[in-house]
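#structure-requests
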Amino acid sequence: MSKIEIRNLSFTYPGSDKKILDNINLDIEEGDFIAIIGNNGSGKSTFCKCINGLIPHFIVGDFKGQVLVNGRSTLDLDVGSLARQVAYVYQDFENQIVRPTVLDDASYALLNYGYENYEDLGRKSLIACGLEGREYDYIWQLSGGQTHLLALAGAIALGPDILILDEPIAQLDPQNADKIYEILEDLRKRYNKTIISIEHHTEYIAKYCNKVMLLNKGKISWILPTKEGLSKVDDLKKSDIFPPQITQAAFMLNEKNGEDTKDKVHLPLSIEEGLSYFSNLKLKDYKKEQIENTNEEILRFEDIDFTYNTIKGQPKIIFDKLNLSIKRGDKIALIGSNGAGKSTIMKLLVGLAKAKDGKILFKGEDINQIDEEELAKHISLVYQNPEEMFIKDSIYEDIAFAMKEREVEDYKEKTSNLINRFRLNDLKDRDGRLLSGGQMRRASVAIGIALKPEVLLLDEPTGNLDMATRTEIIKVLEEIKSETETVIIATHDMQLVSQWADRVIVLNAGKVIADKSKDQIFDNDLVKETIAIRAPEIFDLAQAINPKTYVYTVEEFLENIENNLKEGHYED
């Protein structure tokens, strides 16, 4: 039975001649778990907003065609009626949290619809989303992952048959990301829910979704069973989608061997399948030499205590006697579960938060004794939400602002140089808040390094980005080495950690539980279990083949195989 029937759907936003959706025809069956993929601007979010009725009831434009939900046209139903059938968890899910306590928020829609048993139903949705026991907590006591689960609980409380999620695991640590998808899978299996997920993380698509749909320039390129769809590597790469690393490795190895890959539909998607696929190959022992940083210390945390007050209960302890030394030239990744204190460290370094006790030294001087404007010349923070970096009406003015205010000589020339360097020429006159995610990230980094700070802090620089844009941001980080020697990144993106960082600091429960190279971190089962981090899949595959092989990219994996074959090391 089709839960959603779409016929000849087209949509154009006001003031535009370009169709964002162009003659879409599609049936989505009851119990489907379908991933919607495509590059930025392909129409994924617009497509989903047509299903829940936001388009055209609230978002106007040129709407043509028909969308049927459970046999009824969305044009004949108001958004309130559709909400009982189609739940939507948005990418900016925090905006869906409207009440102060957990149970209050989960049951709020039920209360508005006049359900007498609204609290009981709200409790059931919290149990389904793994939030049992948090009913009377205030929402600001929740971690990012728990807040995302609360948004999901509020969405499913009305008992909809269809769930739509826009990038449900963006900015979540692996543990919470797993939890989101496990809950969705349980809802599908236990209650036969139909689930639509806009997703860039193809390893999750491979594990949980039964179908995948590729959108390209507003048209459906194809909709296929997941294994077949994710094996279409050429199609995916043309749309800036990266298949699972193991799939890429098999595809690229076939190409190197001269095999026809165009219609290959049986590429491996998981580590287990990869072990079988590469069973006749060996990997050489491989580990990059770690170069010790012998530069002078630039930052020191001495016995830092940091807490924040809560409305009820004891103050929340974030750091208890935190000690940390950072040297000039360090490329550090701060990792840990949501709420571990990564962002707090950055706020402490730029004066947005103050320690209860202890002190932070910048080149031997207490930062609390340094004027904030002077400190900003040396330490710069690029916020997790890049739109917060934009205060003027154009990218050019935003990049120039700090230099102009401080009367930097030749600031106009330096602004133009940054515009060129970060490939922002076509965007320089546009409002930064209206750019795409990747464009915002590039512009925010340009703003961050405008004063050539000695220390650059980036909070989740690859969050909410598609895989191609994440790759571009990694390139940008490599490019700024000459501008900023010392860079600290807070991130859940393990691919970023493994490709970029020289040093990984692991935070858990307000303490540093590990401060090592990436090889030492990803080889430490205790650390991985404690904070539920996950190495890139290609690393785990290589380790399963040879525990002495440390590779983090598909290219490194294939290079190892190629070198091994050249030396005649293989199995019959």
